[in-house]
Amino acid sequence: MTYKIVCAVKNNQVVFTLPPDFSDKKMVTVYVNDHIDERAQKLELLRMAMNDPIFNADIKEVNDDFNAIDSETL
Predict the structure, then answer these.
(1) What is the pLDDT of residue 67?
(2) Which residues contact 72 (CB under 8 A, 6 or more apart)?
C-alpha cells in the first residue's frame, strides 16, 4: 500500500501518523521530496522577474512582434 501526505518540517523534523491500514506493519519506507520548496523558489524567481528590466524588455519585444501580426488573417 502507498500512502502520501505532505508534512510541515519543524526543527528539521517531520512527524506524521500512519493510517489504520498500516497498524500491522513493522517497517515502512519513507521518501523525502522537497518539490514544494522548488515550486516556491520558482514562484519567487517569477516575482523577481517582474522587476527585471531586461526580462521586461524581452517581453515587450515579443509582444510588439505579435501585435504586428494580430490583425492578419489566414
Answers:
(1) 87
(2) none
pLDDT block averages, 10 residues each, the chain of length 74: 86 92 90 82 90 94 87 68
Looking at residue 27, what is its pLDDT? 92
Got the DSSP string for the chain? ---------BTTB------GGGTT-S--------HHHHHHHHHHHHHHHTT-HHHHHHHHHHHHHHHHHTT---
Query: For the stretch 35-68, what's the b/e string if a residue is b when 16 or more beta carbons lie within 10 angstroms of its beta carbon?
Result: eeeeeeeeeeeeeeeeeeeeeeeeeeeeeeeeee
